[in-house]
Specification:
By secondary structure, the protein is mostly beta strands. It is 3% helix and 48% strand. It is built from 1 helix and 11 strands. Strands 2, 4, 5, 6, 9, 10 and 11 form a 7-stranded mixed sheet that branches. The protein has a 4-stranded antiparallel sheet with strand order 1-3-8-7, with no helix packed on it. The protein starts with a strand and ends with a strand. The model has no long low-confidence stretch (mean pLDDT 94).
Length: 128
């Protein structure tokens, strides 16, 4: 059974940091482009970041560029999202997503239509 499991969410004060993890089971992440998306209450799901198969390409939405960093450890079958300088507007459920094969990360972060598999999500709340 193919599964993506996110972890690392929680409550953090503005300016704080969190590191989200996305662990895959049932398949090897080596063959997938991986994206992070988020959905705030009452809003559509939006792309946050993406890393390509060979980690040669990454992409970020304008709202998180310079604050978030995506990385992958294929040996651990895990992708990470390091989030620094968190703001209240970053509050959302964060989802890991897998796209089979190569996909342009510039496209992945602007649409959910390419996603083949979704994780269940992890809540991130930024509040004082």
């Amino acid at each position: 059974q193919l599964q993506l499991v996110e972890s690392g969410g929680g409550l953090v004060q503005p300016g704080g940091s969190l590191r989200l993890s996305c662990a895959a089971s049932g398949f090897a992440l080596d063959y997938f482009t991986i994206g992070w998306f988020r959905q705030a209450p009452g809003k559509e799901r939006e792309g946050v970041s993406c890393v390509s198969i060979r980690e040669g390409m990454t992409s970020y939405s304008e709202s998180v560029k310079g604050r978030f960093t995506i990385s992958r450890d294929n040996a651990k079958n895990t992708v990470y999202l390091q989030m620094n300088g968190l703001k209240p507007e970053d509050t959302a459920v964060y989802y890991c997503a897998a796209i089979l094969g190569f996909a342009s990360c510039g496209t992945v972060v602007v649409t959910t239509r390419l996603v083949d598999y979704w994780g269940q999500g992890t809540q991130v709340t930024v509040s004082s």
